[in-house]
Recover the amino acids of this structure.
């Protein structure tokens, strides 16, 4: 069994279904990308798994951590997991840090909590962690407040805080969306390095296929509360099986080659409260037939590790393309 | 609530009441003299205790406890003049009075009162100006109004003085009982930093001495055991300022006070519902009336004013608002005027039809007449004003009721904006001259401010003040009343004011026929 | 359309500073948001303006539109100088220069229908009779791909893409000569971005208007622009054909920017810039990029490089190293991109 | 921080100047104080003399500048009623008012904040609803009605507490309770909403995701952040306490500044009213400054500017 | 803005219709809010039809029938709520008082909103010295508790209905000014207003057609918060003898004059006190609810 196994997870806020049965597993040391447009349920999946959703949400399904279901577990069991085994960082680092506490204290809090460190020992470890995530002048910055740091530095603080509990899995929820391109590159690079150094697993949530493709070995594409396609990252680009994935790829302007007219997905994401019957993507899909409006397709295996939830998805032979998925580790930091 | 029984509640309440009231009630039974607390609406309008600056009803209430005049009044009885700091007095001629002073009178500072002190009390440093101390302007004015022809006091001996007046004054002795004539210690006065400093802490001769005065809050008087009448009956008298009627009553009911003054008639039943308390008092020598401004274009016509006087239902007001506890006087005069009391003088009758007829005759066409009213400056003033307004409206008068905050706003503006307002009049001498001529004669403020003038009345007023022919003076007085109340009305008399004081039922104490509260030996037993 | 031969838009040496107040009495610091920017744009042409947050690209857009006056320099539109903001000449010019915004929901009035808002420029400039206005609104809505029934809807009941179409329709209803797009796609979902880019390109092709396309997204800029200018801390550091700039960036910053673009399947090495973009309030001396520049020299720390054509290929770039005026501190090891 | 303080001081000074001007304009232009003080019966000569004595016969602008000069030299004049220095008159009353407002202030805080926090943490529970009903009611019941009901119950019916006067500490209980109730209600409401807002913030989620037990999240992370908006409300509350004192002191015959104001206003004792209004305004301005400084202490973002500049 | 000033009752009406339509369209509304709205509708209906439903003229006296008991305390049906110290029908006075108090509260709320919004817009539009002047005025308002200010002004300028309403209108102006200024500035710098400005619209069009309607919901919420405060202020000032004066009557005035009869004839005071409290309660409940629904950002 995988390290974390999410099984048939569904979340509803009142009458609107945010998640409609998610199945996702993360192996130890693996980097999984979770891609989708706003409102597709990427973040909700992991907030639900860790019990961080408000009480108004109805959560069903199971989340197996090392074979034990932690979904709806009592606080006493859940609290050591949060930050200790599964850590999470969020989109807007400035808002995710407590504005009135010094960053050293915020990192130290996790150390005390999960590793029982206090006083000078904790302080030394905080400095080490800050060094590790590349915050310059850590010894002084320990006393800084979040508002005194830039967005990129704050995200590094968040990462240091997440590392403090020595988690086995880091869930990074759109960690670079609020940041500039060059800073985004820094953070992605840092995450990759850290993963290489610590061997922890990572789930990278992003709306940007480019971001996940570089960092993750496996990618799950979400649409309207479902995973519609899941594959090793190379295969997603070489053999996109779901029309939505194809649409996403087609709408990205190319960086090289001749400029072509972009292939866009018409229409817009359905509202959670007004989900169409059948395939949720059918109204926007140029392949859709009457069948699509009736059948809600189940994931269909297309190749090893590759499945897509589309009735028209066609199985294929793997290894046609030489660009295999180890790209994330092939990064080389040229200028350091 | 289930855990606490009724008995428990009662015992707690009894215990706490006792604890709170212990010092006062207990001391009443011991050899030590009791102390009383009096809840009043106001202690002093001017925040001073010197009667030259505090010419008000509320000042009248307190000053007799700490200050004395040469001649006193029998406040509880017939208002007659009595010896106080003077043992006897004698007219030398029309303009001169000799006074023998009481011996052995001590001031609160221990000094013995001499003729020097008396002469000083009536002297330039205290009231006329031009002496060594600067006297506030308004003090000089008040003094001149109270003693219009005063010349000087001559010291004839250590305990004998002679008062010189510059003109004939039939009521000169009576004027010596006026509150401004409180006798003060010359030494203490001269030691005060300024006139106003003195005014807040005068050193006088009364049965109680001022121990603490916190303006707008509390006045504490303590027994002055060297008083010439002997030890006063109370160890202490505290006047606690409590502007809210309900608060005063509550203070009494909760044991925080032994007396609550200025009780509106409507509250009498409420207070007396509790057998521990009693409301005493009744009509006093103060008459409520409503005055007209002759300069107002509509009110210039005497017919309109007559109509106003004929549509006031005095008896209804007395019956409803006062529960019949006061009376309607025969015009602006008092029965203690003696021979000067015109017993057959009638108020203008309540006669709406006559009023309507008068208005028709006057050609009145609903022009608005402003009526400025202070919010319950007088007891039940607002209610009375609303009753009058309704009655006036009923006969076709267009009265605009305007509530104002203070006296200044009543006299604000030109003749058109001033119309009707409320007033009261008090007399303390058995002669109409001081009251009537002082208020409405050429020396009075309505005359000076052009509010009401009548040439014939003016002449008669002067004659009333200068003539010594009693018969003639009575005739003049009769005619004056006729002019000012019937022919060319300056005001309409409503009723006698009444003062009601709630007190502990076990205290034997009699209210005065005025606002004065008398806490001397003869008026106390508990 | 007077002065047909002149460039549609000319901006010379624009500079704009803001005063940053610290409290009521506090020191005021001058922040030069835009510092000596010159650009020109002809009809039918799209200029892409790229840079990271705080580089002054949006301020440049506002200066070009005359919404704010520049402290230095001048803007010429169709041969005439830009009137002062708020004057009636300025207001009249609005019908010829329009703007598309980053967040369409914010740029639209939630209380008014789409139809009313698309018609608003016509109302303001009193163009046509009411019947003509209705006709024009219907036409322009059809042109941007909105259904007639959308006219009666309110912005919140439309999807993000439809809202941006409505904003574009409002901008186009007066047939402007210049369209300034300030980050028009960055608030939109990926799938919608493509729709808007396609639409803008189609519209330009049809109307021949000039377009200034401000974005931090190099891919989008490449897609739509005829020329691209890269800004860093208020200055243009490189300018040229999009393909040339993207494939062979001359300025080290442009190199880093290009290499930072995440792209599916991209495997090549990447330049990772160190440190954060500096605060515009304390601008580094010399070349503003030198503290982060991998190849900075002593010259870069003291002398401000001028934007001028490179000798080798005529690319306009502002870098001492690129011009060979200073030897690179370290050999640039990468400089090949995907 | 220093700059921040200086700028606050300057704004405070501007406020004070405006208050002084306002007081002068309203009180001097609205009517003739001479007739008020002297009474309706006073002869014109006496009124003229009074005017002269108080400088009321001077041109208005002369009076205005004289007034400013006097204010800045601490000379606020003498009470027109009894000739005392108004500063002394007002200061004499201050202890009485403080004896009510300070305890009431602590009641507000001691009751309002815990109630608000509790209600926020147990949103939609029965206690939350009770707190909110009390809070809204506390706001809706006029303080004088509350005061009179309290007197009726505790003084008249039960006889536990005195109803008026200032004889012992027991006299202060009902006025303090009256003033405390309204303020506590207000504070509970604001604390609750501030707390709810904080609980919805991202960093609370971060703290939970870190594995902090909920109680630690509330105590260590939520409370201090919720204190920031609450402090602003406490600043407003001071104004409410002063206004409350005016009414409550009247009901309970408590000889404080509020009573002094009501009495002086009724008598048009200009100097005293001026002094009271000025003093209240200055207290409020000072209190608001203290609140701002507190704000800075609680919220490091306020000091941040200066710090960032130094680096 | 224009129709708001011309018919105060109309604003309340439209607000209520909107609320009711919200209710009708199926958005769930707590029972308490429904009750609050019903109470306010009742108050409005009473205010509008006061002359028709009032059994007696409110000044009509029956001095022989003073302090008669209300029905629920054993009185007669002639005077359902009893009579006061002058034998006037308490019910009739209550009805007239409701009209007067609502008139004052509406009038003052609207005056405050108009002044505040205007100054807020002026500050936002001109910025610079004008803005500083407005902000100084705002500071000044914050420096004096309103009751103290009102006390001074009323006592010194005397009392008239117009002055009273205008004075109370100043009560919350600075709140509206702050809101209007803040929202206008933020709208102007990045948002629909910036867009409209760049279209070449005149300030009138910008503020009147765009900004005002957009901030209206926030303003209405603040108005519902200020409304009960004004009702309470009116009663507080009346208690101190500075409010509405006889022969006119208002809720606060009734309480003020009735307080002496609290123990002997409590119905005189309790009926208006109840109406004050419940009305203030209902409006603030409604305001809180509206804030949650319409404007979660307002703190």
């Amino acid at each position: 069994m995988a390290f974390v196994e999410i099984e048939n997870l569904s979340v509803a806020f009142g009458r609107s279904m945010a998640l409609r049965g998610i199945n996702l597993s993360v192996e130890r040391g693996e980097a999984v990308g979770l891609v989708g447009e706003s409102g597709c349920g990427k973040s909700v999946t992991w907030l639900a798994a860790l019990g961080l959703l408000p009480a108004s949400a109805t959560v069903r399904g199971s989340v197996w951590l090392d074979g034990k279901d932690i979904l709806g577990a009592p606080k006493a069991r859940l609290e050591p997991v949060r930050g200790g085994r599964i850590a999470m960082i969020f989109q807007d680092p400035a808002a995710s840090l407590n504005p009135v506490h010094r960053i050293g204290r915020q990192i130290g809090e996790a150390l005390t909590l999960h590793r029982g460190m206090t006083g000078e020992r904790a302080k030394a470890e905080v400095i080490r962690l800050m060094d590790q995530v590349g915050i310059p002048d850590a010894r002084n910055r320990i006393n800084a407040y979040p508002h005194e740091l830039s967005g990129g530095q704050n995200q590094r603080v968040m990462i240091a805080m997440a590392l403090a509990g020595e988690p086995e899995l880091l869930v990074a929820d759109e960690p670079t969306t609020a940041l500039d391109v060059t800073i985004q590159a820094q953070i992605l690079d840092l995450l990759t390095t850290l993963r290489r150094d610590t061997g922890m697993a990572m789930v990278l949530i992003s709306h940007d296929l480019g971001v996940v493709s570089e960092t993750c070995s496996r990618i799950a594409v979400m649409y309207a509360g479902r995973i519609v396609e899941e594959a090793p990252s190379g295969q997603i680009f070489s053999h996109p099986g779901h029309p939505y994935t194809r649409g996403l790829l087609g709408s990205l302007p190319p960086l090289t080659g001749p400029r072509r007219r972009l292939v866009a997905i018409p229409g817009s994401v359905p509202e959670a409260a007004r989900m169409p019957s059948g395939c949720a993507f059918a109204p926007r899909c140029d392949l859709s037939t009457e069948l699509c409006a009736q059948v809600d397709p189940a994931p269909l295996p297309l190749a090893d590790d590759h499945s897509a939830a589309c009735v028209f998805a066609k199985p294929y032979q793997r290894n046609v393309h030489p660009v295999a998925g180890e790209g994330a580790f092939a990064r080389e930091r040229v200028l350091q | 609530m289930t855990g606490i029984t009724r008995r428990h509640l009662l015992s707690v309440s009894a215990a706490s009441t006792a604890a709170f009231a212990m010092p006062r009630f207990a001391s009443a039974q011991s050899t030590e003299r009791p102390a009383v607390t009096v809840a009043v609406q106001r202690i002093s309008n001017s925040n001073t205790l010197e009667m030259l600056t505090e010419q008000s009803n509320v000042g009248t209430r307190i000053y007799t406890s700490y200050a004395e005049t040469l001649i006193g009044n029998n406040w509880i009885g017939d208002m007659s003049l009595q010896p106080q700091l003077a043992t006897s007095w004698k007219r030398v001629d029309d303009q001169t009075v000799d006074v023998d002073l009481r011996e052995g009178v001590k001031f609160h500072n221990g000094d013995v009162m001499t003729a020097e002190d008396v002469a000083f009390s009536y002297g330039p440093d205290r009231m006329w100006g031009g002496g060594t101390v600067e006297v506030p302007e308004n003090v000089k004015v008040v003094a001149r109004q109270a003693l219009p022809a005063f010349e000087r006091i001559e010291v004839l001996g250590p305990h004998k003085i002679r008062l010189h007046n510059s003109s004939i004054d039939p009521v000169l002795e009576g004027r010596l009982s006026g509150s401004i004539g409180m006798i003060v210690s010359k030494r203490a006065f001269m030691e005060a930093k300024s006139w106003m400093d003195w005014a807040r802490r005068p050193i006088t001769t009364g049965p109680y001495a001022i121990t603490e005065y916190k303006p707008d809050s509390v006045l504490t008087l303590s027994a002055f055991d060297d008083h010439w009448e002997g030890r006063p009956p109370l160890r202490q008298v505290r006047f606690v300022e409590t502007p809210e009627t309900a608060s005063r009553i509550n203070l009494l009911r909760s044991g925080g006070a032994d007396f609550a003054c200025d009780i509106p008639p409507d509250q009498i039943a409420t207070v007396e519902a509790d057998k521990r308390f009693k409301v005493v008092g009744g009509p006093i020598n103060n008459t409520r009336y409503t005055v007209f401004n002759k300069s107002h274009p509509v009110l210039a016509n005497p017919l309109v004013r007559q109509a106003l006087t004929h549509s006031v239902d005095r008896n209804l007001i007395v019956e409803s608002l006062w529960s019949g506890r006061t009376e309607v006087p025969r015009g602006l005069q008092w029965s203690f005027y003696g021979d000067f009391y015109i017993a057959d003088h009638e108020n203008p009758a309540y006669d709406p039809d006559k009023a309507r007829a008068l208005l028709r005759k006057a050609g009145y066409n609903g022009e608005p007449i402003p009526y400025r009213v202070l919010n319950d400056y007088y007891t039940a003033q607002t209610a009375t004003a609303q009753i009058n307004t309704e009655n006036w409206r009923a006969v076709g008068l267009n009265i605009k009721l305007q509530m104002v905050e203070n006296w200044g706003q009543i006299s604000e503006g030109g003749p058109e904006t001033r119309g009707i307002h409320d007033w009261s009049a008090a007399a303390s001498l058995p002669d109409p001259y001081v009251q009537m001529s002082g208020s409405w004669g050429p020396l009075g403020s309505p005359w000076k401010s052009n509010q009401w003038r009548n040439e014939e009345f003016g002449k008669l007023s002067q004659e009333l003040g200068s003539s010594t022919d009693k018969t003639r003076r009575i005739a003049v007085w009769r005619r004056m009343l006729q002019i000012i109340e019937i022919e060319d009305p300056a005001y309409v008399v409503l009723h006698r004011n009444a003062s009601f004081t709630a007190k502990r039922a076990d205290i034997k104490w009699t209210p005065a026929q005025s606002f004065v509260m008398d806490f001397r030996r003869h008026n106390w037993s508990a | 359309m007077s002065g047909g031969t002149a460039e549609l838009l000319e901006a010379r040496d624009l500079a704009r500073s803001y005063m940053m107040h610290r409290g009521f009495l506090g020191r005021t610091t001058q922040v030069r948001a835009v510092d000596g920017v010159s650009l020109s744009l002809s009809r039918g042409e799209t200029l892409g303006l790229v840079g990271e947050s705080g580089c002054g690209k949006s301020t440049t857009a506002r200066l070009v539109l005359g919404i704010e006056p520049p402290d230095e320099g001048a803007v010429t539109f169709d041969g005439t100088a830009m009137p002062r903001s708020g004057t009636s000449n300025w207001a009249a010019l609005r019908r010829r220069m329009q703007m598309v915004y980053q967040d369409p929901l914010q740029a639209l009035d939630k209380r008014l229908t789409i139809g009313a808002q698309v018609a608003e420029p016509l109302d303001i400039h009193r163009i046509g009779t009411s019947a003509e206005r209705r006709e024009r609104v219907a036409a322009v809505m059809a042109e941007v791909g909105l259904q007639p029934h959308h006219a009666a809807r309110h912005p919140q009941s439309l999807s993000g893409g439809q809202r941006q179409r409505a904003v574009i329709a409002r901008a186009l209803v007066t047939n402007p000569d210049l369209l300034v797009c300030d980050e028009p796609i960055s608030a939109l979902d990926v799938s919608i971005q493509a729709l808007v880019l396609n639409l803008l390109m189609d519209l330009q092709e049809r109307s021949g208007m000039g377009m200034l396309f401000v974005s931090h997204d190099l891919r989008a800029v490449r897609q739509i622009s005829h020329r691209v200018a890269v800004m860093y801390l208020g200055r243009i550091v490189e300018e040229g054909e999009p393909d040339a700039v993207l494939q062979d960036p001359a300025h080290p910053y442009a190199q880093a920017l290009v290499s930072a673009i995440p792209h599916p399947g991209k495997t090549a090495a990447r330049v990772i810039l160190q440190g954060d973009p500096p605060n515009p309030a304390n601008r580094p001396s010399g070349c503003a990029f030198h503290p982060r520049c991998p190849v900075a020299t002593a010259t870069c720390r003291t002398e401000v490089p001028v934007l001028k054509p490179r000798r080798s290929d005529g690319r306009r770039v502002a870098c001492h190293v690129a011009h060979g005026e200073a030897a690179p501190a370290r050999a640039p090891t990468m400089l090949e991109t995907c | 921080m220093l700059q921040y303080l200086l700028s606050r001081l300057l704004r405070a000074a501007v406020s004070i100047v405006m208050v002084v001007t306002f007081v002068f304009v309203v009180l001097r232009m609205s009517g003739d104080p001479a007739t008020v003080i002297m009474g309706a019966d006073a002869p014109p000569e006496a009124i003229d003399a009074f005017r002269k004595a108080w400088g009321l016969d001077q041109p208005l602008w002369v009076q205005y500048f004289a007034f400013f000069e006097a204010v800045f030299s601490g000379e606020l004049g003498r009470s027109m009623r009894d000739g005392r220095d108004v500063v002394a008159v007002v200061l004499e009353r201050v202890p009485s008012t403080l004896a009510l407002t300070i305890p009431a202030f602590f009641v507000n805080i001691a009751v309002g904040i815990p109630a608000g926090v509790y209600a926020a943490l147990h949103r939609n529970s029965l206690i939350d609803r009770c707190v909110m009903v009390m809070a809204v009611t506390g706001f809706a019941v006029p303080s004088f009605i509350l005061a009179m009901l309290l007197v009726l119950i505790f003084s008249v019916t039960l006889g536990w507490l005195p109803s008026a006067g200032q004889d012992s500490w027991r006299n202060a209980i009902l006025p303090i309770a009256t003033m405390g109730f309204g303020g506590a209600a207000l504070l509970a409401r604001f604390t609750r909403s501030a707390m709810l807002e904080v609980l919805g913030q991202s960093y609370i989620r971060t703290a939970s995701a870190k594995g902090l037990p909920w109680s630690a999240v509330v105590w260590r992370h939520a409370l201090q952040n919720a204190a920031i908006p609450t402090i602003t409300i406490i600043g407003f509350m001071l104004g409410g306490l002063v206004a409350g004192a005016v009414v409550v002191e009247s009901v309970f015959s408590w000889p404080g500044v509020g009573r002094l104001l009501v009495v002086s206003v009724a008598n048009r004792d200009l100097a005293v009213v001026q002094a009271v209004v000025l003093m209240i305004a200055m207290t409020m301005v000072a209190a608001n400054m203290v609140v701002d400084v507190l704000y800075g202490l609680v919220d490091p973002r306020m000091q941040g500017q200066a710090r960032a500049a130094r680096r | 803005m224009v129709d708001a000033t011309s018919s105060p009752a109309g604003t309340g009406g439209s607000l209520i219709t909107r609320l009711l339509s919200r209710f009708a369209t199926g958005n769930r509304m707590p029972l308490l809010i429904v009750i609050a709205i019903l109470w306010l509708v009742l108050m409005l209906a009473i205010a509008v039809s006061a002359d028709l439903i009032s059994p007696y003229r409110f000044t009509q006296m029956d001095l022989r029938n003073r302090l008669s008991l209300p029905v629920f305390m054993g009185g007669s049906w002639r005077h359902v709520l009893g009579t006061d110290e002058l034998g006037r029908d308490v019910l009739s006075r209550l009805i007239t008082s409701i009209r007067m108090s609502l008139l004052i509260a509406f009038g003052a709320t609207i005056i405050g909103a108009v002044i505040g919004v205007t100054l807020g817009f002026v500050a936002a539009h001109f910025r610079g010295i004008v803005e500083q002047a407005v902000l100084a005025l705002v500071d000044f308002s914050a420096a004096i508790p309103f009751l103290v200010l009102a006390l001074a002004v009323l006592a010194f300028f005397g009392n008239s209905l117009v002055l009273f309403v205008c004075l109370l209108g100043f009560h919350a102006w600075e709140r509206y000014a702050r809101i209007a200024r803040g929202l206008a500035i933020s709208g102007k710098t990045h948002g629909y207003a910036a867009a409209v400005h760049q279209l070449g619209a005149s300030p009138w069009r910008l503020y009147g057609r765009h900004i005002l309607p957009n901030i209206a919901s926030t303003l209405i919420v603040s108005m519902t918060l200020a409304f009960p405060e004004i009702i309470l202020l009116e009663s507080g000032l009346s208690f101190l003898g500075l409010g509405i004066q006889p022969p006119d009557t208002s809720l606060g005035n009734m309480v003020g004059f009735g307080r002496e009869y609290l123990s002997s004839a409590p119905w005189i005071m309790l009926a208006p006190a109840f109406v004050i409290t419940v009305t203030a309660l209902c409006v603030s409940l409604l305001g809180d609810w509206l804030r949650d629904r319409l404007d979660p950002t307002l703190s």
Q: What stands out?
A: The radius of gyration of chain D is 24 Å. DSSP finds 13 helices and no strands in chain D.
